[in-house]
Write a structure and sequence with these properties.
Distance between the termini: 40 Å
Shape: globular
Strand content: 15-25%
Order of helices and strands: HHEHEHEEHEHHEEHHHEEE
Bound molecules: S-adenosylmethionine
Number of helices: 10
Oligomer: single chain
Length: about 280
């Protein structure tokens, strides 16, 4: 089987259009989950009072909000105007700006720390984002990012992807981006960080649990609050999508805990230093 070649510009346009549309639903669906990584992420980047920190792909602003509570001087950037507006609503005192992770609108060596919570897996050119983070960091500055653990561990993705494989099509002609789980691999994190000029890479797993009110919420969150996975679900026939939804519902029942559903959704946390 040949690996389809990545189309970074088309992929970026697809992601941008998607995030513009889902900012509210993303917040509703994912705030309780991606916020679980914020404290370990900021700790890994050594963010404390007075530290100048850039939160890249800030989304609704969870990381920047906690960094500001620590007394850091924080700027959040995101390429989606809708996400920037959401972050400003949630954190009216925050400094949130439109900007591209792959082409940061800042000079060299102006930050002590750069962080990215669940952003790298959405980029067509993640190496460019690492090079940009490296450029805007001062020597000795810290970089840290999170991504999802591989689907066998971040069960929500396994459940949805297995259902699509079983009842639908995976090759649906979406603009090709890098593998969603590329940086779930610790070795790949190490290699890419070192290639970008960072030193002392460290990779950990953050245990996270997604608590959902009903067995249908996983499908709804993925359909309404994501971009790539939503694209895959939307590209199915209505009949296949209904079967996929029913299959996900059935699997989710196994994760019933009391009156809710709880699934493991660990993150991979990678960090490194600019020499
Ligand atoms: C999964 S959300 C993560 C949001 C937030 N960091 C969190 O902790 O929940 C991904 C975010 O990356 C942003 N994004 C994707 N590609 C980007 C790019 N090239 N430059 C800047 N932001 C980007 C999206 O607009 C979206 O807000």
């Amino acid at each position: 089987m040949t690996t389809p070649s990545i189309a970074p510009e088309a992929f970026r346009a697809f992601e941008h259009e998607g995030w513009q549309k889902v900012s509210q639903r993303y917040h509703h669906a994912f705030a309780s989950l991606t916020s679980q990584a914020v404290v370990p992420l900021l700790d890994a980047a050594e963010v404390s009072a007075g530290v100048r920190v850039l939160d890249v792909a800030a989304g609704p602003g969870y990381v920047a909000g906690v960094a500001a509570d620590r007394g850091a001087e924080v700027i959040g950037i995101d390429f989606s105007q809708a996400m920037v507006a959401a972050a400003r609503r949630h954190y009216p005192k925050g400094d949130f700006r439109e900007g591209d992770a792959e082409d940061l609108p800042f000079g060299a060596a102006v930050f002590d720390a750069v962080v990215m919570n669940f952003g790298l897996l959405h980029l067509g050119r993640p190496e460019w984002a690492l090079a940009e983070a490296h450029r805007v960091l001062r020597p000795g500055g810290k970089y840290a990012f999170t991504v999802w653990a591989r689907p066998e561990e971040a069960i929500g993705f396994e459940i949805v992807l297995n259902a699509i494989h079983a009842h639908g099509k995976v090759d649906v002609g979406l603009p090709q981006g890098p593998s969603f789980f590329r940086f779930s691999d610790a070795g790949e994190c190490h290699r890419t960080l070192l290639a970008a000029g960072f030193v002392s890479p460290a990779v950990d797993t953050i245990p996270q649990t997604w608590r959902l009110s009903t067995p249908d919420v996983l499908f709804e969150n993925m359909l309404e609050g994501t971009v790539r996975t939503a694209g895959l679900l939307r590209a199915q026939t209505a009949e296949a999508r209904d079967t996929i939804r029913a299959s996900i519902h059935q699997t989710m029942l196994k994760y019933t805990r009391g009156n809710a559903i709880e699934i493991p959704m660990p993150a991979v946390l990678a960090s490194a230093k600019k020499p």
